[in-house]
Amino acid sequence: MVAGYQCHGFGNEFSSEDPRCPGSLPEGQVIHTQKHTLGSLNNPQVCPYGLYAEQLSGSAFTCPRPANKRSWLYRILPSVKHKPFAPVPCGNLTENWNEVEPDPNQLRWLPFTIPKSTEKKVDFAAGLHTVCGAGDAKSRNGIGIHMYTCNTSMADRCFNNSDGDFLIVPQQGEILITTEFGKMMVEPNEICVIQQGMRFSVDVFGETRGYILEVYGAHFELPDLGPIGANGLANPRDFLCPVAWYEDRKVATGYTIINKYQGKLFACQQDFSPFNVVAWHGNYTPYKYNLENFMVINCVAFDHADPSIFTVLTAKSTRPGVAIADFVIFPPRWGVADHTFRPPYYHRNCMSEFMGLIKGHYEAKEEGFQPGGASLHSIMTPHGPDGECFEKNSTAELKPERVAEGTMAFMFESSFSMAVTKWGLQTCQRLDKNYYQCWESLRSHFNPNWKPSKQ
Ligand SMILES: O=C(O)Cc1cc(O)ccc1O
Ligand SMILES: [Fe+2]
């Protein structure tokens, strides 16, 4: 049990009541006008404490049970009570994948700049910047990859994404996320997922930066384990979700709901806090996970295993085995493979690979790839270890050794061919123009007279 988080487990059926209102969940309680106890009544004629019942659906009503997601929220006022939405500027958030010409080069970004609070106050919603993406929120198939850089808490403002799920990877600064389901503190080396339609507001405690993988039209799942067996990788019980927390707060000056809808931002006003859910139950919730809990599987004999062994979460497409996007990490582990070039191999991939670094270094590139920066190796764009890494690891003694100690690199791997935005290629001014040079020192070792060494 982790303090403040009553709910453990991935995708479970949870129930939560704010302790200030015992009995606020109608589930299974005695309805006083009747003699008997009813079962799981979701929508009573009159809810306990005079609350409104509201369902949040995360899947089509008719989805098969394993994919069916919904939660019931018992709230002081329903979400529908608000003034009309109107368009607001999107800043650097976009779903326009045609802003600039395609670029198949290996791309690498220096750490993205965080605005100084002394110069400009920027909150999470205003600090969203789209780097790359593909697909279409309207047809419910695609992804967006965003950076958030901010220095100020959201004040009487919350965000609601109608387009998809946000997998948030804090890199610098913890974030306190208030959601309709309760509060979650998420620190660097933890991740959280705020699913489609869940209202949330972000408090920060200084200069703050992180990465977001947005997926339209699918939810994140734990990957199948196949021959690994029943346990391993990210274990379901290490996923935590918040407990019900409400505020009954009038906001005479207006509370702003920001809605991302079809790739654009809209805002509306209401005169009360949207975090007015006293109790909830269901299997559609926000959740968080500490990457330290990942049970790493790695090669113990020879050769380099594909990075799919490090998949934390996957958002599946309808093609078997093909993800819209996988979230993959490169955690600290033992490297013991014999006769093997241990770092990542040289490769070209039919998937797109966006990488970020939470802390430390990345094993294939000791220099240049920095925490808070990123790289993109697009579909079939060749990449692999830099010259220095190749030389070092071709001659290294193959004793058991700790790999990636104190570091955490990750990859958003997608079957979509992603477009980079104008902000990503130009406006952010963080593109490392010299990236290609890290492979320039690779030289031919070819020896036509080579003979196998005698054993
Ligand atoms: O390109 C990368 O650095 C990511 C990666 C790591 C690895 O161990 C194997 C394949 C791969 O794409
Ligand atoms: Fe790769």
From TrEMBL:
GO terms for molecular function: homogentisate 1,2-dioxygenase activity; metal ion binding. Keywords: Dioxygenase, Iron, Metal-binding, Oxidoreductase, Phenylalanine catabolism, Tyrosine catabolism. Homogentisate binds at residues 362, 383. InterPro entries: HgmA_C, HgmA_N, Homogentis_dOase, RmlC-like_jellyroll, RmlC_Cupin_sf. Residues 8-291 form the Homogentisate 1,2-dioxygenase N-terminal domain. Belongs to the homogentisate dioxygenase family. This is Homogentisate 1,2-dioxygenase. The gene is hgd.
